[in-house]
Structure formats: structure tokens, C-alpha cells
Amino acid sequence: xxxxxxxxxxxxxxxxxxxxxxxxxxxxxxxxxxxxxxxxxxxxxxxxxxxxxxxxxxxxxxxxxxxxxxxxxxxxxxxxxxxxxxxxxxxxxxxxxxxxxxxxxxxxxxxxxxxxxxxxxxxxxxxxxxxxxxxxxxxxxxxxxxxxxxxxxxxxxxxxxxxxxxxxxxxxxxxxxxxxxxxxxxxxxxxxxxxxxxxxxxxxxxxxxxxxxxxxxxxxxxxxxxxxxxxxxxxxxxxxxxxxxxxxxxxxxxxxxxxxxxxxxxxxxxxxxxxxxxxxxxxxxxxxxxxxxxxxxxxxxxxxxxxxxxxxxxx
Length: 315
Ligand SMILES: [Zn+2]
Hints:
It is a single chain. By secondary structure, the chain is mainly beta. It has two domains: 3-139, Immunoglobulin-like; 145-306, Distorted Sandwich (Glucose Permease (Domain IIA)), CATH 2.70.70.10. It has helices at 152-155, 163-172; strands spanning 3-7, 37-40, 49-53, 60-63, 67-72, 86-89, 92-95, 97-98, 104-109, 117-124, 134-139, 145-148, 192-194, 199-202, 205-210, 214-216, 223-225, 230-237, 243-250, 253-260, 262-263, 270-271, 276-279, 291-297, 300-302. The strands form five sheets. Strands 13, 16, 18, 19, 20, 22, 24 and 25 form an eight-stranded antiparallel beta sheet that branches. Strands 2-3-1-5-9-8 form a six-stranded antiparallel beta sheet, with no helix packed on it. Strands 4-11-10-6-7 form a five-stranded mixed beta sheet, with no helix packed on it. β2 and β3 form a beta hairpin. The N and C termini lie far apart (49 Å). Bound molecules: zinc ion (ZN). Zinc ion (ZN) is lined by residues 13-16, 194, 211, 213, 215, 292. Residues 13-16, 194, 211, 213, 215, 292 line the site of zinc ion.
């Protein structure tokens, strides 16, 4: 069975900070791994190298907070029932879904808190010969820290009953249909003033948590657009997150947009890439108008910068 492992990388909400996470690069190919070819991925999850190896063992690397893209591409597998095939990494499972070219893709999220080091990825549920575990190295993303000054009233904000549960459900949703393509767009045309993954302090006190998305320095009232096709799973004025829209893009990919002043969609609505979801505001846990947007893959916040062309940093 030919196993193709591609490293790509692709937020839980949080407040603002500046760390850049570059895409992971594949490690040197083991000498006993057959004849690999390295070529660029043709899609917009963009410019990430793809390592194609006929054989079993592939050494690869992924940064904390990024997504490992695992492809199965084998004539003995393609076209055969593969329902239930999963990739498991660090105790978390990701389902394989078919792509148009007949290969199978599983998006495996790696936690910001995953300790750097050597791990294995295992694949189960495929037909034919069992696949050997694949070695994967997690490398340190060197996330910085960021202090956010917040007022007492903001700091004391509590979520509505059911608010956190609704966010959690979006994060974990893995629906079988795919509404996204690989050309993601930025929700607003603005620079980012707080990157994904920064470890947060509030008024100088470590929170133990990190920024689960990207903050865009967007002015109040600016339209916020869907980064890709999807179904509206959340459209609600929450207390902690403020005006919130959550999209299920399908097959384990989700996105969230918070602090909106006004919503423009309703739950259950299908949206296309670029549709206006709502408008920039400063509702909920926010120190001023901006857009916090995040991405989830199969239960974890992941780095949005992996999914779309570079969003410029604010100076
Ligand atoms: Zn934020």
C-alpha cells in the first residue's frame, strides 16, 4: 500500500499576540523508503511540500498547532470500501475522506501543547495489508507570550448557559459532506495584530491558555466574509464570545468569528465563500473593535495561517 504523508499545517478563541507559525517541512527520507518524489501540492492549503513515498515508513515533522495531512493513495485501496479508516496521533483520531483524485485524506490536528519530540501515527480500518506506524516528529513552534490589559468588568465576563457547549460542539463536529475547497480567503482584508498560539497573560497574570485564533485589526462595521463554503452551525449573540458565527465546512473543518456587532446569517443556512456573515464589533471579551477568527480541525484549534495566503502582520 502506498502511503503518502504530507505535512501541511493549518484556533480556540483567545485574545490578541504575535507569533508566526511556519509550515512544517518534511524530514529527510529514510534510505529504505523506496523512491520518493518531492513536489508541490497543487492546492491552496498551499505551498506545502508533499512527500510521496511508495513503502511504509516515512519520517516527517509537524509544528505544534499545525495540521498533519495524511494521504492514502493506493490502487488496492482506492475504490474499495474504506468507511471507518482512521489515522490516530497522540490519542486523537481523524477520519479519512475520499478526494476527487481517488486518494484518501485525513487532517490530523496537533495541539499547541503537544510536547516536541518523536511520535508515531497509526492508521487503522483500511483494507489489505496492515500499515506500519509512521514516525512523526513534533517540533517546537516557539510561541511567544502576550499580555492583554483588560478591565475588571471584561475580565469578569461569564459565558451564557450553553455557550461553551455550543463552541465545543462546533470544534468537535466531523460531518461527512465537504463544503470547502482548498482556496481559503481571509474574512476581512486587514492585518493581524495577534497571531495564533501566543501564551496569554491578563493584566500580567498568566492564564495558562493560549490564543486560539487570529485577531485582525478590522474597523467596526466592516463586513466579515466566510472563508470558504459551509453550513452555519452557530449564529448567536453570546456574552463571553459576543456576536458569534460558527461554520461547519465539513469533514472535520470548522471556523469561528467572534465579537461581531451584528449577525447576517441564521443557523442551518448554507453559505458560499465570501458571503457576509456579520459585521465587526467589540462585543464580549474584547478590548476594542477587531475580528477574532479561528479554525478547528477534528476537535482542536489549529493555526489559521496554514490555510490561506499570508495575512500581513500589523506593524
Ligand atoms: Zn483573538
